[in-house]
Amino acid sequence: MLALRYLSIGAGPELVDLAIPNPRGTQVLLRVTAAGVCHSDSFVMSRPASEYIWGLPLTLGHEGVGVVVEVADAGDSALLGESVAVFGPRGCGVCPQCAAGRENTCLHGPTLGPRSPGLGSDGFMAEYAIVEHARYLVPIGQLAAATAAPLTDAGLTALHAIRPSFSALVDGTHAVVIGAGGVGGMAIQLLRACTSTTVIAVDIGAEKLDGARRNGAHHVVEAGDSAAAQIRELTDGLGASLVADIVAMDSTLRLAADSVAPGGDIAVVGVASGRLTVGWGALPSGASLRFPRWGTIGELREVIALAQARRISPLVETYSLTEGVQVYQRLEAGEITGRAVLIP
């Protein structure tokens, strides 16, 4: 089978030929029907040897959808033949967080190290892929595979990040999304689908801002020195009840701090290496700062249900698996609007 793999630190991904894996124990084998392309993959491949922790060689792709084609002897055959999305976070499975379905915040995660498909173990940019257990699979019914794949990270991460603010996002409030790509675009759609707030999107360049409008943003602001002032003007000087920073550079974190309203929330989703000084006077009174990661399997079921009801639909560009190397080049060049999805 063909697979897109990261083979050596500092090199780009390569398309290689591998044997189809055999499921063992509780494992199931998927025939992959779609795999999303994420900036997190580029982040992993950009790390120097001193910071690289994900193992090599590594089949890329942590957003996976497929059809269950084989189940090992100890596996659950109930989903055999079903189209499924794969829940990505992996924890210890037994701590209180994991037991409650919150493997994204496993208490032992920092000591276990990365274990998720595509981020520690082989992922879904291949014609076939192994999933450890059927409990990580969520049926998608008739939902298109290319639509479902981005929901497993971009959609799930966005919902988990903004959900705690939903009760505050009523008529007359504003929410700011900084970075309107794959995750940001889903955050905009979810804010429109689940709240009555006014959504302001911030990004660089006309194409990205046009994508934000297509995702439903009420207003768009080009990133730059005047962005905070424009947001203050759009919010009548009050600031936003929620600012979701999907980038997390120094400049975007500062923009988030300058844009949030008293009592508002900042959700830092991005994985850039920015830093924000916090303390008395650094943020408005009562503002909160949180660092969400991915989401829960219950939230993945919710975001899939929203897509099945046609309340959200990620903007996708589809490519063949053999185009994967070029797709990552386009991603790095900022030439992808929404989410690129590889179809084996």
Describe the structure.
The structure is a single chain. This protein has 344 residues and is an alpha/beta fold. It has two domains: 2-152 and 295-343, Medium-chain alcohol dehydrogenases, catalytic domain (Quinone Oxidoreductase, Chain A, domain 1, Alpha-Beta Complex); 157-290, Rossmann fold. Helices cover 26% and strands 26% of the residues. Strands 3, 5, 6, 9, 10, 17 and 18 form a seven-stranded mixed beta sheet that branches. A six-stranded parallel beta sheet has the order 13-12-11-14-15-16, sandwiched between helices. A three-stranded antiparallel beta sheet has the order 2-1-4, with no helix packed on it. The protein is globular and about 60 Å long.
Please provide a brief summary of the model.
The chain has 344 residues and is an alpha/beta fold. It contains 11 helices and 18 strands.
Q: Please name the CATH topology of the largest domain.
A: Quinone Oxidoreductase, Chain A, domain 1
- Cα radius of gyration in angstroms: 20 Å
Shape: globular
Percent of residues in helices:
25-40%
Strand content is 25-35%
Largest sheet composition: 7 strands, mixed
Low-confidence stretches: none
Number of strands: 18
User: What is the terminal-to-terminal distance?
Assistant: 10 Å
Number of helices: 11
* Strand/helix succession: EEEHEEEHHEEEEHHEHEHEHEHEEHEHE
Structural class: alpha/beta
CATH architecture of the largest domain: Alpha-Beta Complex
- Estimate the mean pLDDT confidence: 95
CATH class of the largest domain: Alpha Beta
